[in-house]
Amino acid sequence: MRLAQLTYPQTKALLEEGAIALWPTGATEAHGPHLPLDTDVIISDETCVRAVDVLKAELGLNVLILPPLTFTVTDFAGPFSGTLSIPKASTIPYVRDVLLAAAGQGFKAVCMVNAHLEPQHRFALRDAIKEASSKAPCPLGLADPADARFASSLTEEFASGSCHAGQYETSLVMAARPGLVDDAQRQSLADNPVELITQIKAGAKNFLEAGATEAYCGFPKDASVAEGNASYQRLVEIVTEVVKELLDEKQS
User: Fold this and answer.
1) 161: left (phi over 0), alpha (psi -120 to 50) or beta
2) Nearest Cα to 31, choosing from 43, 19, 49, 17?
3) What's the gap between Cα 77 and its chain centre?
4) pLDDT class for 196, splitting at 50, 70, 90?
5) Residue 35 dihedral angles phi and psi, to the nearest 5°
6) In the CATH scheme, what is the code of domain 3-251?
7) 146 to each of 54, 123, 252, how far by Cα in Å?
8) What is the β-pairing status of strands 110-114 and 19-25?
9) What is the mean pLDDT of residues 104-129?
10) Which of the residues 12, 89, 110, 249 has an alpha carbon 20 to 30 A from that of 81?
11) At what angle do helices 39-59 and 167-176 cross, to 10 degrees?
């Protein structure tokens, strides 16, 4: 399932049988005082893991998970310790070249699975896919829950744009890695319904300026494992939809 844990003969055999690649995409950045810095990586990786059996059953193809993208544009969390941001100008060629390297292995399709919602990061992924697609021997795509066609199908908090380290993301981490959630901190946090997209459009350059003074917004106290599992189910559906579109593109 995980490319990096296979031998090269194992990988060769799976590719010859027919395989697609999923690339979990996150960031290393502050997620409130209660969630780990790799929250987005956890969410995207867990989505990929849960998608493997679904995609195998529906498409009859092997599914291999690439090592996650952990460093990218994350300027909004820049004021907080542990946040490691790289410029968009560096992100685009790196992502492009990894996509081309993966596509060159013989996958039927390569799909990025994103959980980091900062706009400049999302733009960087799209630019990288656009640059790589003209040279790649297979379709390349992006399953991004923040896309307009998907966002309203997730939780109310997610759709509001007030979800960084809030109820939505906290629920997802609780469902995947509960030991990494500081639950005492979580339950002590006040609601912070800051709409980040509105603040970004108004000119905010980081979480402090946007009103997320502890690197979270939304309602982390209301998070639950049940919500996390329900959100993963929807995220897997999104990945499945995008992968099917890529394979249809390959056949057309």
Assistant:
1) left
2) 43
3) 16
4) confident
5) -120, 155
6) 3.40.50.10310
7) 22, 12, 27
8) parallel
9) 97
10) 89
11) 70
